[in-house]
Structure formats: structure tokens, C-alpha cells
Amino acid sequence: MILFALAAGGGSIAYVPLLTVLLPLKVTALMGSEDVGALARVTFYGAIVASAANIAFGILSDRSRNRIGWILFGLVTSSLLLIAIGKAASLVELIVLVMLWQIGLNMMLGPLFAWAGDCFPDDQKGLLGGLLAVAPAMGAVAGSLVTFERIVSVEYRLYAVAALVGALVLPALIFGRNQSRPRLLHTIDTAGATAREPDGSALQTRSIVARMWGARFLVQIAEAGLFAFLLFWLRSIVEDFHENTAANVFSLVLIVSVPISLWLGRWSDRQDRPMAPLVACSAVAAAGLVMMALATEISFAIGSFVVFGIAATIFLSLHTGQTLRVLPKPQNRGRDLGIFNLTNTVPSLVMPWLTLMLVPSFGFAALFAFFAALAALAAGLLATALKRA
Predict the structure, then answer these.
(1) What is the pTM of this model?
(2) Main-chain dihedrals φ then ψ at residue 32, nearest 5 degrees
(3) What is the CATH T-level fold of the domain 2-174+183-383, as seen in this structure?
């Protein structure tokens, strides 16, 4: 489980530094004052490709029964394309390279998370979710390291990211290649899959899966907005806010989330209450977004983001573990996780255009107020599942 958590951390490093800091900087270098609209275009086209690629490679890993081979090939491909992104000379070239990179990235990530379902039983899903909080923290720390010029010079940032990804993913592939459990690869009986539900019906299982998909989608819309535009928002408050400081704030949020996620994940396993932490975290995330909407000076803005960021990170980490618990058909695990991955990628399709509609006319405050309403709705959606799961 530790090796898998480190590999998931490598997967996070593969995209967090790029999408939060390095890609916005690249877009600004290419487009100057037109960077917000250009970044929205890059994000939009990349998310379309990511949505299809994650499902496709999930299905291929299901049918081939060789998840490790796909993970390895995706690792190599995405690393090479990551380095190529840094050499893009125009916006069109950048968009094409980001789209190709998304294919390689999801060739690695889709089978990787399906592999977790092949290895870890239901009574460890909460702990697994807690450990997965390490992944975004590692991605953020990597972002801080590669933007600290005394450690990595500007021209070698993407090379450093690719090296870190390989160093973290490869040990899991080498030492964990025979760790899948045969009993987790067979179809789960409907009655067994719904043993925690009052009448054990397949309909209730589908209902819980749908509510989990919807709640994650709503939270991810807010997460995607902050993920891509955090630096721009902070610079709207303090014009010369440094990218390394933004990366450090992001890192702090994700590091603090790790021990809390581990505790909540283990608690949910022991108490057999997988939904309760998800409800609480989505509610706290909504409160943090309200605070962000009200922020007018930098210290309060950063503090508000910390509240939202910690709650959202814990929610998304624990949600991933519990998703593996509720999916009823292991032979379609890669495909089903690809469908759940749409909650990560579809918000990236919606969010840039939503931002462009709201921010120029009403400012970031209106955007964050809207995000807060979505997070509150997610809390209500999962609260109705408390007695069922």
C-alpha cells in the first residue's frame, strides 16, 4: 500500500506542477496579457482528450489483464511529452502537445488506480483513501521545489518533474507486480456488494454510485477552478505575488491534509461509516469558498484558501478509496473508474468558460460564491446516503 501511495504521488507530480504553475507561466510567456483566455483554451482541449483517454485505457487494461504494461508505457510517453511541452514555440503547438501528453498521462493513471482495486480489500479502502492524500501533497511539494531557482534552474524544471515521476512510479511496478488478489478480480455478488444497505437491492447500489459521482463532480468544479486560476486570483489581490509563494501555499495545504486524511480514513474503516467524512469535508469546503469570496486582502485570502484546500483535498482522497468500494464489477473496474474520472476532467471543460463569463464582469468573488453553492449541494447529496452506506 505504501508503494502504491508513492506511485500515486508520482502520478500527481506528473501533472500538478505543470497545471498549477508551469503551464500558466508558459502561456504567459507565449501570450502576454492574453494569458487567461489562452490558458482556458489549453485546459479545455487537454481535458477533452483526458476524458476519452482515461476511459479507453481503463477498458484496455481490463481486457488485457495487464495493467502494469500500460502504466509503464504511459509513464515513458507522458514523461517525454512533458519535456516537449517546455519547448513549444506557439499556442497551437502547446495545445497539441498538451493533448498528446494527456493521452500518455491517462495511459498511466487509468490502469494505475484500477490496479489499486485489484490489490486492496474493502476494509482497507478508507486507509487507502487516506494514504492517497499523500499524492497531491507530493505533487505540490514538487511544484515548490521545481519553481525554487536555487534548486532547479528554469530550463530544467520539466526534466526534474519527469525524473521525480519515474523514481516514484517504477518501484511499485517492480516490487508490486504480483500483489493482485484473485478474490478481488471476480464479479461481486449483488447481495454481497450491498450488504450494508437496508434491503440489499442493486437499485440502492446504483443510487449510491450515482450520488458519489454527482458529489465528486460538484466539488471538482470548484477544485478545477482553483487548480488552474489560483495564481491569477492571488495576483488580482497582490500584483507581484510570486509563483513560488503560490506553490508553497498549495504545498502547505496538501501536506496538512495528509495526517487528517489518514485519521479520517482509518476512522471510517473502523466505524464502517464511509460517507460521514465526505459529507463533513464538502460542507467545510463550501464554508472556505464563502470566505474566499469575501477576501479582499492577501492574508485572509490565503487563510480562506487553506480552509477550502484542506477540506477539498481530504474529500477527494477519501472519495477515491470509497469509489473502489462501491463499484460492483471488478472485471470492468478500469472502465468504471474512467467514467468516474469524468468528474475530474469534465469540470475542466466547463470551468474555463464559466470563469471567463463571471470573472471579467463580476470578479472572482462571484465565481467563488457559485463554487460554494456547488460544494454545499454535494454535502446534501451525500448526506442522503449516510444511512445507506
Answers:
(1) 0.78
(2) 65, -125
(3) Growth Hormone; Chain: A; (1.20.1250)
